[in-house]
Specification:
2-enoyl-CoA Hydratase, Chain A, domain 1
Length: 337
């Protein structure tokens, strides 16, 4: 059963509880004694309970399909922020072999909000970089809830240049609400750090794959989001600003976040239609938080497929295609009146 159910998941959680209760009843040793005391056939009672369990499971499947097939942009934002949603280190544990984390920006300090290191994905030796929000409260505070500081982007650039030097492709996992906006980060040049990271990634002479696995929030996301292929998980979001911030700016009313989410076109499906991403990766039935392993397999398959393709492209061609890719974003045609 899902521990941290969202509001629209409550009916599913209720069914989950009913299924658990019924399973517990079937496994209860006292059931046989009850049947003997009330002159009931134990095998028939078990068969009846199994039939009821199968009906509940079918009802649950229909309900999950109905709910997650019709999520609004705001509901997808909530799924992207789900407490149980897998983060960068979860994907590293699932399919990145021989991972060796590398620390520090060699200038100021290490930023735990961005993790990175060398690893192997299938037959490819890669550099993995990603935001890490943390799981429990203590780790979330240490990692600043995935909001990176200037030193985090400095570290990302250092690892990218290291990957370039040794001919390793770069795979980044994007999952942040925004970059850190504290006074310290502003004093150390957070905007310049993000801009520098974007510039270096745009010119990096090695293949780059970006995977938006949760929130793709503003400059914090694009700071490690420039690459040759941009992939998004089915229920992830990508936006210039969080819906709450947009609502506060436009209407001075954060409670209109759902309306803002719809206007921002933040879903993976919107991003694909607008040409901002190259592929939407399907998640496990009911979202990545319900089955991390299945979702990780989908991510691994997509990343491996694109790595197989990109490593065959000459570097000069790769850089030209990367430049053209981002220059095309935001173009539109206006029909003459």
């Amino acid at each position: 059963m899902l521990k941290n159910a969202l509001d629209f998941e409550r009916p599913i959680a209720d069914l989950d509880q009913q299924i658990l209760d019924l399973q517990g009843h079937m496994e209860n040793p006292g059931l046989r004694e009850w049947c003997e005391e009330h002159n009931q056939d134990y095998a028939a009672e078990i068969a009846k309970l199994k039939k009821g369990l199968a009906e509940l499971q079918r009802a649950r499947k229909r309900l999950v399909d109905e709910v997650f097939s019709n999520l609004s942009p705001w509901e997808k934002t909530q799924v992207a922020r789900h407490k149980d949603r897998p983060h960068t280190l979860d994907y590293v544990r699932e399919f990145c072999d021989d991972f060796l984390e590398l620390h520090g920006d060699r200038v100021y300090s290490d930023d735990p909000a961005i993790v990175g290191g060398i690893a192997r994905i299938g037959d490819h030796r890669v550099m993995v970089i990603g935001h890490e929000k943390g799981r429990d409260l203590k780790e979330k505070v240490r990692r600043n809830y995935g909001s990176a500081k200037p030193e985090g982007y400095h570290k990302a650039v250092r690892l990218c240049k290291l990957a370039e030097r040794f001919g390793r492709p770069v795979v980044t996992f994007v999952d942040t609400s925004a970059a850190d906006s504290s006074i310290g980060s502003e004093e150390r040049g957070i905007s310049a750090a993000i801009a520098w990271a974007m510039e270096e990634m745009a010119m990096l002479k090695t293949p780059i794959i970006i995977v938006v696995v949760g929130e793709g929030g503003s400059g914090g996301a694009i700071g490690i989001g420039v690459g040759d292929r941009i992939l998004m998980l089915e229920h992830s979001v990508y936006s210039v600003i969080p819906p709450e911030g947009c609502a506060n700016i436009l209407w001075r009313d954060g409670s209109r976040a759902a309306e803002a989410a719809d206007a921002l076109k933040i879903t993976a499906q919107d991003a694909l239609r607008l040409g901002c991403v190259d592929e939407v990766i399907p998640e496990a039935f009911g979202g990545a938080h319900r089955n991390v392993q299945e979702t990780a397999r989908s991510v691994q398959e997509a990343v491996t497929r694109h790595l197989d393709d990109l490593v065959t492209v000459p570097i000069d061609t790769l850089l030209e295609q990367r430049y053209d890719k981002f220059r095309r974003m935001g173009r539109w045609d206006v029909e003459p009146e």
